[in-house]
Amino acid sequence: MVTVSTDRFTYNKDEQTFVAEVSDLQLPPGDGIALVSAQTGRVTALQVVNVERDREQEVTAWVLRSVDPELRDLFTVHLLND
Q: Which string of DSSP letters, residue by residue, matches 24-61?
């Protein structure tokens, strides 16, 4: 599993969402990741919970959440397929 720091994402405080483009992170699309907090150093594994598609059924984004029950509802990660 690839580990990525939160400082590589844009954070939307109102939506509690981290957003980044897959190509910027150089991640294999659709895989889970480990997210490490740039502030605390805490690491959590994330899994894909939804795949967003456009009208042509092409993938536009992967939505990930923590596998840790304590963190699962605190934030969401959107990896955009560019």
A: HHT--TT--EEEE-TTT--EEEEEEEEEEE-TT--EEE
Mind listing the pLDDT tens digit for each residue in 21-43? Answer: 999 998 876 778 999 999 999 99
One-letter identity of residue 65: R
Q: What angle do CA 49, 4, 72 make, to 5 degrees?
A: 35
Query: Which one, of 65, 73, 7, 16, lies nearest residue 41 by Cα?
Result: 7
pTM above 0.90, yes or no: yes
